[in-house]
Amino acid sequence: MANIKKKRTSVITIILWDIFFFPVGIYFIHRRLTEDKTETLKNSRTVNVLGWILVVLGLIYLLLGFTGGLESENGESVVGMIVIMVTLFLGGGLLTLRGAKRMRILGERYNKYCQIIYANQTDLVTIANAAGVSAKLHKKIFGI
Does residue 30 sit within a domain? Predict the structure, then answer.
């Protein structure tokens, strides 16, 4: 079987998708960060930082909303816009932090499996025991 390498989406393409077609760009960012399993742990740190930046921006908008710091040019309140911004930034940040945690767990699990396999453990039952996977889950995953 030949090794077929997938072509990764370039960063410039992802940025253009984010600018012109925002939701599709988010999908490409997610796909790029989760493609390479060996980099998942490192990418989870980047996603974690992005999540905290979004949370801080959401909290700033929340603070501006409570203090009335945002008004339009003619003095009208922009409460609706603040609610939308808080929802997007704070909610998006919390979801991003959740995704970063999930990526970190998967990255740690992948690294653990690699270390076990590099130690010449090739029996699936031995790998499952060393990785701390239950017998039921092992049976479900591997069918053994």
Answer: yes
